[in-house]
């Protein structure tokens, strides 16, 4: 069997707060592991999977600006498939690589028009407008 999972509510010295599951490491420290919610005093909320005390797995990160990322995380970064909603209402659905838009994706602009293409670090050469016929 793996290490015992605890449910905690913890406030960090910087007033960040974590409510969720954790395990005790061999040296006795608690680390976030499993499902949990982490909030910061300035209004950022992460709800989702944790591993090795980092955001790993599937989660949702909400920013006070209105930006929301929902999808896969790796070591606190957007990594894998996800949807990023911009504060202005535009949206990107596709692949992320270490916080950057990378690979096949779709961009829905503020007018609701869908663009698809290959993204490379937010720039998308050769975007094609997807027309709904």
Observed structural traits:
mainly beta, eleven-stranded antiparallel beta sheet, 11 strands, 0% helix, elongated
Helix and strand sequence: EEEEEEEEEEE
Count the DSSP helices: 0
Structural class, from secondary structure content?
mainly beta
Low-confidence stretches: none
- Please give the number of β-strands: 11
- Main beta sheet strand tally, sense and closure: 11 strands, antiparallel
In one word, what is the shape? elongated
Strand order in the sheet with the most strands: 1-2-3-4-5-6-7-8-9-10-11
Beta-strand share of residues:
over 45%
Report the span from N to C terminus: 55 Å
Average pLDDT works out at 92
Radius of gyration: 18 Å
- Share of helix, binned: under 10%
Notes on the structure:
- The mean pLDDT is 92.
- The protein is built from no helices and eleven strands.
- It is elongated and about 55 Å long.
- A hairpin with a 5-residue loop joins strand 1 and strand 2.
- The protein has an eleven-stranded antiparallel beta sheet, with no helix packed on it.
- By secondary structure, the chain is an all-beta fold.
- It comes from Chelydra serpentina.
- InterPro entries: MORN (IPR003409), MORN_repeat_protein (IPR052849).
- Keywords: Repeat.
- This is MORN repeat-containing protein 2.
Write the topology of this structure.
Layout: E1 5-11, E2 17-24, E3 30-39, E4 45-51, E5 54-62, E6 68-74, E7 77-85, E8 91-97, E9 100-108, E10 114-120, E11 128-130
Antiparallel strand pairs: 1-2, 2-3, 3-4, 4-5, 5-6, 6-7, 7-8, 8-9, 9-10, 10-11
